[in-house]
């Protein structure tokens, strides 16, 4: 099955949500307590997906709120530098800061992170800063779950989803669950379900779908039965090293394999997966091919130091797929 | 047209949201500054509707949070006393208080009110306190808009609506807009639209629909066109002394007249209207007849001192309709 | 011993802190749950003391913040009506409400109360609203402990005390401890001690001094030894029906008796005590005589329905003292 | 004049307040937006002073709250490593984070900083975590003004100062004013004055004393006249490159010169000044000599990359003084 998009749109993808700062350990093979130097990158799931998309040659835009400080200026300047339209990035006027993620690189299996997410600027994007005339220029609105964790960002997202539906923009919901900020598992499920039921495509790990359904050890079949009663017609459920599954409303099931690679750290895999998967869909590739694009992109990023700067080109992805074939 | 409900349910109506205290001026014809004595009643739109329904002989239940104090005990005891099932009313454990509404009775046209709504117990009902096994016992879930104004009550309502939809319980959305507590007009519209689109019946004034649509001077035709694209199949739009209109998805329009009466104060009209209108629908009456029930009930309550204690019986309503015919 | 004041001052007493609304049960001998009518009075310890002082013929002023609503206007109008200078009462501009105290009158021994103190206007008086030119017009600055419970009222009080000290205004600290609002017993003790150490006269119950000293079962002797190392030179410690003690830095001890009366309710006793005691001091009476004034005033107020409106005249107090002599 | 301390104490100095993380630009001569790598150090004025003191051979202790994360463990481990007693450092149990200060090193004159101070662990030290038995073991309690900016840290400091006074521990107040966190200039002045009036020694810049006195262009003479009416008997007022002045209650005035050096960045100067000045006082040196120690230490730290790790030894300080003599 191929997935259809509205061809007459200026932007391939507009992502909405957080754009933050990653501070990745410069020294390898040690816990963060002993890491003395950190390297700065742009981070945050929807920002990474926009960056990844732009590096793949898609026309990307971003809606979000950034601080009025040195970190905020770096974020906007970096994103603009890779070709993203930043005209709808709002500069916070109330002294809020960029979210931070410190990472250690202890071993390929162990990479603890330390997040600063209290009162960060991105969670203060509000509904009056989301504009219909911008959203309706896109083929895809990419929404990440973390932006639902708190008001007023939550209402900004709900409004954006409503506007996308009204204007025939495909809503892609990358579940991107992070425990920070959310107040309860019950409330998380309420908003995840509300947005998933209105989306066209949902992408997440098995654990993230369990969060959405407020259950443990959920089964893909139940998830698929439930969500296909609502708007979605394509669901991607990722099972880590066991690969990922794509389900269509027509009843098709596709399995994607993870590509083995020399892993430096694990973070960044999901965002690179999403950007390459969406790239392939937008380019009219078959879903099984899109799964390969996602896996290849993820395997490239986990072998490198950052989650954003390391996003691959189409050539790199295709080369890896060819080598592994 | 008659409206169909699931006959096999224990409760005719379960209302969810606030149950508060009204403190109505005992002395008439003076501003509140000069009012020295106040009489206590149960108040709050969904509580009033539950009380009104119970007085009309319906089996009613209530989901809400009340304080662990003298006012909370009065509320629960009064509601239980009129026959409401209070088993799902939760007692707050964190020292929160009952909402208060002081009223003056200056003249039939002028009755200013003074509300205490900061950190009130009813806005702290949370999603874990809303139970599927209870909601699925009802023919109707009655939701009032004010409960959406703030978390965690907001999430409790969103969950309740989701459970009602899942279990074939009709969702009746009484818009009940109050400016207190809401943070912005934009956000108000986001949540009102979200719930209205999922409801079966929506009841409100023209001004409340404008709030939902985030516009001014909205037209009934546009409202009807918009909402009938979603779940609702019956909309009631009230135009004050000019009467009210009921629209069905089948394209019918019914007009209801306001009954002239000796008005003591204006508050309480909407809740008495809703309870009698729903009573009539549940009893299988035609919609035009249900509009008469609503108007008659409203006209009785505005001639009396309270909004809850004054709720009429079926006989009083039918007598007024007969007299005015 | 007589107590000396600066004679050349326009105001006998300026009180600072809360002015609120009391809603006293109109019906006697029943719990609040069954009380259906409430009568409105001005309340709040420093407001009551200002009212009591004014009724005794003293020139009183008041510094505080009141809401911009019907209750706020009633408070200002009532206080102005009894002769208090209200020029330094600030009207809140952020929608905050008046504190409320509902009372029941169940029996002379049992009168539970229900307070609304969340985000009340009086706790939002801020330091920029306290003016040196006003405070320096007074013989006495009357401070009540409850105003220390939260910022910014806390800083307003600390500033006022500093200005009083700088301008030779006697600081009278009525401990007036209420558990609401305070976050911890430790913090309560920090601020009570800070202000008590800087005051000239401290008035409170034995239990309130224990709170100040962060101990249980404190002894008057220890309290006196501790506080006389700092600024105070007169301490009044009240032991309920066992009467009260006044201690001077010179080593004198005076005992005051409680006057037996027909008690209607217990609240209001402390404020009437303080206003009459201070009246007597200001009029140059001996301390033992001032203790009688305090006791007589308290015994009159507990036999009546309100705490403010019931404040006695000098004649009533002197008559009672004469009768009981 | 020499300054006397209680000789019979286990600790020379116990500092109380914040211990945070500095992230100093690794690359020089560029704005922070273009700085890609940051090096981690312990930071925060009282932590730096404790570290500086310990490196000078003093027995130092620290009271503060650190996060239960990688940064918190680094802070505690680093401070313990330089010889500080960390037994009264409390680990936060509510997910709060370490304060962060990102610095750029653009030029010796321009070094902008970017602070993360929202809801940081150090501001949540509370009064129940300050223990009399610990404080009374010290010759000096070193208090920094920033810890007064917010409750509950504010109350912890007020309690600590009260305990120090009660137990004959010298209170040294390093004004350390930072605009973050404080709500108003008026409130800042209230608390600065409250603590300064109770301290033995106050150290700050001319601008910081202006903040304390809530004035602009304050004169040293007025400051000295005001504070010597209260507890302080030694005041140090710093005038940047124009040097610093020490005033004693006996009327002495001493002037200290700044030592010229190759400046890398300006931050860290105040903390190194304070630790060396206090070291000299504790070692019984004359005040004019102590001023030299302060200046020499400051001039060493501003020529190096960090504010904590760069703290000099006694030998380095004495060598610089000798060279410059």
Q: What are its keywords?
A:
EC 2.7.1.92 (chains A, B, C, D), 325 residues, nine-stranded mixed β-sheet, homotetramer, alpha/beta, 5-dehydro-2-deoxygluconokinase (chains A, B, C, D)
User: Largest sheet of chain A, if any?
Assistant: 9 strands, mixed
Uncertain spans of chain A, ≥5 residues at pLDDT below 50?
A: none
Name of the CATH architecture of chain A: 3-Layer(aba) Sandwich
**Which structural class is indicated by helix and strand composition of chain A?**
alpha/beta
Name the CATH homologous superfamily of chain A: Ribokinase
What is the CATH class designation of chain A? Alpha Beta
Helix content of chain A: 25-40%
In spatial order, strands of the major sheet of chain A run 5-4-1-8-9-10-11-12-13
Strand content of chain A: 15-25%
Distance between the termini of chain A: 21 Å
What's the short version?
4 copies of one chain form a homotetramer. Chain A is α/β, with parallel strands linked by helices and 325 residues long. Helices cover 34% and strands 22% of the residues of chain A.
What does this structure look like?
The structure is a homotetramer of 325-residue chains. Chain A is 34% helix and 22% strand. Chain A starts with 10 loop residues before the first strand and ends with a helix. The first copy, chain A, is globular and about 55 Å long. The mean pLDDT of chain A is 95. The longest helix of chain A is centred in the last third of the chain and has 15 residues, at 287-301. Chain A has one domain (11-18, 47-94, 119-324): UDP-N-acetylmuramoyl-L-alanine:D-glutamate ligase (3-Layer(aba) Sandwich). The first copy, chain A, has 325 residues and is an alpha/beta fold. Chain A has a 9-stranded mixed sheet, with helices on both faces. In chain A, strands 3-2-6-7 form a 4-stranded mixed sheet. Chains in contact: A-B, A-D, B-C, C-D. Chain A binds chain D through residues 23, 26, 31-40, 69-71, 73-74, 77, 97, 100, 102, 104, 112, 114, 116, 118-119, and chain D through 23, 26, 31-33, 35-40, 69-71, 73-74, 77, 97, 100, 102, 104, 112, 114, 116, 118-119. Strand 3 (37-43) of chain A pairs antiparallel with strand 3 (37-43) of chain D.
